[in-house]
UniProtKB/TrEMBL annotation:
<protein>
    <submittedName>
        <fullName>Aminotransferase class V</fullName>
        <ecNumber>2.6.1.44</ecNumber>
    </submittedName>
</protein>
<dbReference type="InterPro" id="IPR024169">
    <property type="entry name" value="SP_NH2Trfase/AEP_transaminase"/>
</dbReference>
<dbReference type="InterPro" id="IPR015421">
    <property type="entry name" value="PyrdxlP-dep_Trfase_major"/>
</dbReference>
<feature type="modified residue" description="N6-(pyridoxal phosphate)lysine">
    <location>
        <position position="197"/>
    </location>
</feature>
<dbReference type="InterPro" id="IPR015424">
    <property type="entry name" value="PyrdxlP-dep_Trfase"/>
</dbReference>
<dbReference type="Pfam" id="PF00266">
    <property type="entry name" value="Aminotran_5"/>
</dbReference>
<dbReference type="GO" id="GO:0004760">
    <property type="term" value="F:L-serine-pyruvate transaminase activity"/>
</dbReference>
<dbReference type="InterPro" id="IPR015422">
    <property type="entry name" value="PyrdxlP-dep_Trfase_small"/>
</dbReference>
<feature type="binding site">
    <location>
        <position position="346"/>
    </location>
    <ligand>
        <name>substrate</name>
    </ligand>
</feature>
<dbReference type="GO" id="GO:0008453">
    <property type="term" value="F:alanine-glyoxylate transaminase activity"/>
</dbReference>
<feature type="domain" description="Aminotransferase class V">
    <location>
        <begin position="32"/>
        <end position="336"/>
    </location>
</feature>
<dbReference type="InterPro" id="IPR000192">
    <property type="entry name" value="Aminotrans_V_dom"/>
</dbReference>
<comment type="similarity">
    <text>Belongs to the class-V pyridoxal-phosphate-dependent aminotransferase family.</text>
</comment>
<keyword id="KW-0032">Aminotransferase</keyword>
<feature type="region of interest" description="Disordered">
    <location>
        <begin position="1"/>
        <end position="21"/>
    </location>
</feature>
<keyword id="KW-0808">Transferase</keyword>
<dbReference type="GO" id="GO:0019265">
    <property type="term" value="P:glycine biosynthetic process, by transamination of glyoxylate"/>
</dbReference>
């Protein structure tokens, strides 16, 4: 007979999901109420306000989509695009490729701007693509490329879109609450995220924000949005302004309690402090990894503090090490994706998981697994290097 499921707890230091805070798990277990109950509507309003804080925006259309980060991505494209449109899509990792898929499925044309995996998007190439394709109406790029650990210059890229009269779509799934993300100051038009990365919430919800210019484009669409579920004109009636809420779909009520709690935690800590913590812990992890003799896959200027890509040393079996971390230490780190499979590990320090204890747990586990695979390394030296970087 089947029985209740009790997973062995893991420390989640991969590309997501990341460790969920106990406060968030506690919120999830509170009593379910109706999704049109006045109490729930008040919660929805508070969630919107907290999301505006996290996104650093006053955009009225700032809401959580009831589906994972990928649905946020799809929402951005299906709402802004119409068949025949041209979109400049930057690709420097896996997620830019998914953007292209979305563009093409909308019947639009994707003009690709390619950069090496692990490098940031080159703004000059984007300018050049706009000069060659003046009809392009949207620029899409990934701010924090989780597949490689590289950070692009989102502010500059949004400004280039404006310079050429286009709207910007920014993937901030891994960025939100981990690195600075100034939606209004940068003039970003559609920015989407996910709950399972630096928000340390359960997976399955996608916060998204639309600028007034993006809302105007949606309102003046020549035809209907191809997706019924993600059509913002309909979703707005449910999450929308101050008027009565119309039933669109049943919000994942308890998951919204969880999101609310995770956003409260972000606000209590403060964005600036959260960015500083992610940066400090990243520096300490890198110091420790380098003391183990490992090297980072991304140049120092473009490294994401929340996603650390490490080169796998020659002769070391990727799967065996990750297996040892999971089985012997209950610690999950990520494998390389696509072109980087077998070449890098991706160590997440996201949200709640970005803390000194996890850094030390990871260095200890990695040092021991590497040593047992015949790789000479000094775990004590790695821990000392991390402690010094942390100021301990
Ligand atoms: C994780 C991630 C996504 C997809 O989010 P899901 O919640 O897995 O659907 C999209 N873009 C980036 C950059 C991501 O890291």
């Amino acid at each position: 007979m089947s029985s209740s499921f009790f997973p062995t707890p893991r420390t989640l230091m991969g590309p997501g999901p990341s460790d969920v805070s106990p406060r968030v798990l506690g919120a999830l277990s509170r009593p379910t109420i109706g999704h049109l109950d006045p109490q729930f509507i008040a919660l929805m309003d508070d969630v919107k306000g907290l999301l505006q804080y996290a996104f650093q925006t006053e955009n009225a259309l700032t809401i959580p989509i009831s589906a994972p980060g990928s649905a946020g991505m799809e929402s951005a494209f299906v709402n802004l695009l119409s068949p025949g449109d041209t979109v400049i899509v930057c690709q420097n990792g896996v997620f830019g490729g998914r953007m292209r898929e979305n563009v093409e499925r909308c019947g639009a044309t994707a003009v690709m701007v390619e950069d090496a995996w692990g490098a940031p998007v080159d703004p000059e190439k984007v300018r050049e693509a706009f000069r060659k394709n003046p009809q392009a109406s949207v620029l899409a790029f990934v701010y924090a490329e989780t597949s490689t650990g590289a950070r692009s210059d989102a502010g500059t890229l949004c400004a280039i879109a404006k310079e050429f009269g286009a709207l910007s779509i920014v993937d901030a799934v891994t960025a939100l609450a981990g690195i600075d993300l100034q939606v209004d100051a940068w003039g970003a038009d559609v920015v989407y995220s996910g709950t399972q990365k630096c928000l340390s919430c359960v997976p399955g919800i996608s916060p998204i924000t639309f600028s007034p210019a993006a809302v105007e484009r949606i309102q003046n669409r020549p035809g209907k949005v191809q997706s019924w579920f993600l059509d913002m004109q309909l979703v707005m009636g449910y999450w929308g302004g101050d008027s009565k809420r119309a039933y669109h779909h049943t919000a994942p009520v308890n998951a919204m309690y969880a999101l609310h709690e995770s956003l409260l935690i972000v606000k209590e800590e403060g964005l600036e402090q959260s960015f500083a913590r992610h940066h400090r812990n990243h520096t300490a992890l890198v110091a420790g990894l380098e003391a183990l003799g490992l090297s980072m896959a991304v140049a120092a200027d473009y490294r994401l503090p929340q996603l650390n890509a490490v080169n796998i040393p020659d002769g070391i079996d990727d799967g065996a090490i990750r297996g040892a971390l999971l089985n012997d230490h209950n610690l999950e780190i990520g494998a390389g994706l696509g072109a980087l499979a077998g070449k890098t590990w991706r160590i997440g320090l996201m949200g709640h998981a970005s803390n000194p204890g996890n850094i030390k747990r990871c260095l200890t586990a990695l040092g021991s697994a590497l040593r047992r695979s015949g790789y000479a390394c000094d775990t004590e030296a790695a821990l000392t290097a991390a402690e010094i970087a942390l100021g301990e």
